[in-house]
């Protein structure tokens, strides 16, 4: 496994300020405290804007629009194999990824993985095993201003066929040495290699950060 990605210190500070501010805004009743926490949230957005070149307004839209206690978002990815090759779906920008996406509020890890495969690859699958649970910002680029917990699931095909849809334009099986241009913000070659190894190892131990 390659070395994990180290996030820049300014990003860590901005994320911590955002976390403190959101928790404060969630639980504080005093109007003066609320005003202070709102300013802390603004400072975190200003740090991100200055370092990333993205406007403060856009940063606030992406980074400062949640309510309640802040927790990582969940993303699931399905590893589906056939004759020693892994299934990838092609996105509209031309890059390829394991089928997957954000976990819906009314879904479990298992059912969300199966749903995403059905939507993006047209296949009915059964999620049978957890391969890994990873902190996205330690493995994928570019770093996000919020934390994402990525869950990789080994799946078995039960039926179905690919149909073009709103998210993907093609699906295809690839060998490890013939991977196409990947959507590295979603999955890297190292993560796909991990899935290959897990698929062949009946005694696989779940990897986690």
Structure characterization notes:
By secondary structure, the protein is of the alpha+beta class. It has 2 domains: 9-63, no CATH class; 73-208, Nucleoside Triphosphate Pyrophosphohydrolase (Alpha-Beta Complex), CATH 3.90.79. The chain has helices at 9-27, 31-52, 56-63, 109-121, 189-200; strands at residues 73-82, 85-91, 96-97, 100-102, 123-135, 148-160, 168-174, 207-208. Strands 1, 2, 3, 4, 5, 6, 7 and 8 form an 8-stranded mixed sheet that branches. The longest helix has 22 residues, at 31-52. The chain starts with 8 loop residues before the first helix and ends with a strand.
Sum this structure up briefly:
By secondary structure, the chain is α+β, with helices and mostly antiparallel strands. It contains five helices and eight strands.
